[in-house]
Each structure stands twice: as C-alpha cells, then as structure tokens.
Write a structure and sequence with these properties.
The chain is globular. It has helices at residues 18-29, 41-53, 68-82, 105-133, 154-174, 201-213, 219-230; strands spanning 9-13, 33-38, 58-62, 87-90, 135-141, 179-187, 240-243. The chain is 46% helix and 16% strand. It contains 7 helices and 7 strands. The chain has a 7-stranded parallel beta sheet with strand order 3-2-1-4-5-6-7, sandwiched between helices. Helix 5 (154-174) links the parallel strand 5 (135-141) and strand 6 (179-187). The chain binds NADPH dihydro-nicotinamide-adenine-dinucleotide phosphate.
Length: 249
C-alpha cells in the first residue's frame, strides 16, 4: 500500500537510535533521500554508511533540537542538499520519569525543550519550505502517554499531551491551504534505549520490567507505520495512529 518515495526528501530527528534510526532506514528503503539529525554524530555516520551501502542517499546533520540556530541550519541544509523537504519526522525525545516531589527541574526543562518545544520549533522552521513547495508531510511522534497520564510520568505526559494538541491545531491551520499533511504517531512500549536514561532507579527498573513482561514493539514496527502514512496518495492524510503491543493494557 505504500507508494514509492523516490525523489522525496525526508528529515528525521532523533535518527541516532531506536525509532528514528529505523524510520530513516524504512524511508530510505522506500526510495526517499534522508537527512539524519541528532546529537551523536558517530551514530549518524554509521547509519548513513549503512543506508548508502544499500544504495540510499543521506545527509548527516548533527543537531541539538533545543538550539534554534542549529534547527534552522538543519532544515536549510536538508532543503539545499536535496532540493526539497517533503517529509519531516519529529521523533527526537527523552523520557526522564520522576515523581513531581522527587523531580530534578532540569529534567522537566529538558523534556519540554526536546519533546515539545524542539518539535514545535522544527515544525516552524520547516513550514515555509513546505508552503513554498505547496506540499509536505509532518509526522509527530507522541506516545500512548499523549493520551493517558500516569503517576510518575507527569513531566513526560505533559510534553506528549502538548505534542497531541500542537499537532491537531497545526493540522487545522494548514488544512486547505496546501497539500500539507500532519500525522500523529502514538506508540506504546517499544524496545529502544529510551528507558535507559530514566534518572530514577526504581522507575527505570519498573520500565524495564514492563518491557520484558510483554512482547514489546520493535522500532521497525513503528517505522513501518510511518512509512505507511507518508506513502499514501497526497489526498489521504492519516491523522493519527495509536500502536500498542498486542499484550499492552
Ligand atoms: P531513543 O532513546 O532510542 O531515541 C531518542 C532519540 O532522540 C535519539 O536519537 C537521541 O539522539 C534523540 N535526542 C534526544 N535529545 C535530543 C536533542 N536534544 N536533540 C536532538 N536529538 C535528541 O528512544 P526511542 O526511539 O524510543 O524514542 C523516539 C521517540 O519515540 C521519542 O519521542 C519517544 O518519546 C517516543 N516514544 C517511544 C516509546 C518507547 O516505548 N520507546 C513509546 C512512545 C513514544 P542523541 O542522543 O544522539 O541526540
């Protein structure tokens, strides 16, 4: 069902691991040129080598999405190198779970600056290019945590609920103006390194146990869903996809 992405240019944030890495590979396999953004340049270079060895085209753009100048450079370099920016996957994120009473407020700030403000600012920087092209597709990675709040997840929930709200308001703004599509992806448990960065030891242990107790999703499962959404004909906008492991509550 996925249309050929030959000739399309994609930009994936958080491409150095997990869902972003798998998505970059899936889009490249479907024919898109892919710009790879994250902070860890070595991982991006390795991914670029892998994609190129299979005949794909890549651009490595080391970027911290909390820095507006770096965001602008990332977007401009992608459009210049590939001649367009057709697909933006706002995937970079951190999950620094802590109870409010225990929280290090730097972790609150980091989650808001990466998961929410970063996504908003990257969208803001990419939009003029898509408007000029008359088309484009923005894919925002939220979470089940963008729909359901849990004790111990307040900061992360706040950012993902924010992503859902921003995405829907943005979708309404661009609807009818151009062929600009917006897709919200809400994964459940995916086996990536996300939980390894949880600062609270007990919460990190709980998250890992929950992952091990179920047949969790792989990053590829989400990448496939993203490839499906962006591969639809331009009059079809897959607005939202909620994807849980079959045995997740
Ligand atoms: P990973 O930890 O594997 O990937 C997170 C990515 O975000 C990394 O590539 C990391 O790269 C990047 N990143 C973090 N901070 C920044 C920053 N300041 N600037 C640029 N890039 C940054 O986890 P996942 O693949 O699981 O997470 C990807 C997305 O999926 C996140 O938004 C997450 O919230 C969401 N998600 C994940 C779920 C799961 O169960 N795994 C479930 C639901 C949603 P680097 O460190 O090199 O900068």
């Amino acid at each position: 069902l996925t249309e050929d992405l030959d000739g399309k240019a994609a930009l994936v944030t958080g491409a150095s691991s997990g869902i972003g890495e798998a998505t970059a590979e899936a889009l490249a396999e479907a024919g898109a040129s892919v710009a790879l953004a994250a902070r860890r340049e070595d991982e991006l270079e390795q991914l670029a080598d892998r994609i190129e060895s299979e005949g794909g085209e890549t651009l490595v753009v080391p970027t911290d999405v909390t820095d507006e100048d770096e965001i602008q450079e990332m977007v401009d370099r992608t459009a210049e190198e590939f001649g367009s920016l057709d697909i933006l996957v706002n995937n970079a994120g951190v999950m620094l779970l802590e109870r409010v009473e225990d929280a290090d407020t730097d972790n609150f700030r980091q989650m808001v600056e990466v998961n929410l403000l970063g996504l908003m600012n990257v969208t803001h920087a990419a939009l003029p290019i898509m408007q000029e092209q008359g088309e484009g597709h923005v894919v925002n990675i939220s979470s089940v945590a963008g729909r359901k709040a849990y004790a111990g997840s307040s900061g992360y929930n706040a950012t993902k609920f924010g992503v859902n709200a921003f995405s829907e308001a943005f979708r309404q703004e661009v609807t009818g103006e151009n062929d600009i599509r917006v897709t919200l992806i809400e994964p459940g448990y995916v086996d990536t390194e996300l939980a390894e960065h949880i600062p609270d030891d007990e919460q990190q242990e709980q998250a890992k146990e929950a992952l091990e107790a179920m047949d969790a999703l792989e990053a590829d499962d989400i990448a496939r869903s993203i490839a499906f959404a962006v591969g639809q004909p331009s009059h079809v906008d897959v607005n939202e996809m909620l994807i849980r492991p079959t045995d997740q509550e």
